[in-house]
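Note to self: keep these together.
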Amino acid sequence: MKNLKGLVLMTFISLCMLGNAQKKKVAVVTFYADKMIDLSALSASADLLAKNTSLSDDPDFNLTAPLNKLHEAFFSEYAENFDFELIAEADVLSNEKYKAFIPTYEEAGSINKNVASTVSIEGYNVIPTYRQNVKDLKAVAEDLGVDAIMFINLSFGFVKTGVGNFGYVSIQARYSMDLFTKDNKSIFRFNEVAGSSKKAVMVAGVPVMSTEKIQPMCEDAVDNLMEDLNKKVSRLAKKANKKM
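Structure:
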């Protein structure tokens, strides 16, 4: 009987070890926010375009705090829902091939990414989710010993309420999380959006574009986004786990 119990225990331990050995490994390769706000929901005048560019270039318009908050929640809370293993950030950010990687910022059919308008978690490259980047990152993934790579980014867009050139705008925070195998195959692509409770008035079709007005709206939108993610991440993880 003792031998039988011992055999059962050893079998259980072996199965556990086998399960851990087969656990897929994933590296997060980018984690950034874009300061250039999407104007597609508005009738973008030359004046509005200029103000939007000026805002994104303003060093006082700083999205580091909401990005850091999202980053902290992802690694301390959201990541626990996935069956795959996220390798340590330090291993990714210290990898020489990763540090030397030069991303592509243009792709047919996509809006060109102006890296100067972005802010990233310290150490991360700003890497748009373009197929060319996914393909070129294979060497980095192999050097890291991972099965898949994950792209995470945060962007913002205006949402208009009202008629014509009058009314209000709110800010919509947009979270994107994409997972690809190291061989350029999409595993899952997830997007979540949430609007700010705070609003800005429009004058002649142009919203107030000061840092003092827009930054709190962006921060508010990210807070609302995280409330939504907290409710959905478990369901999302189940879908992702099935595909892995």
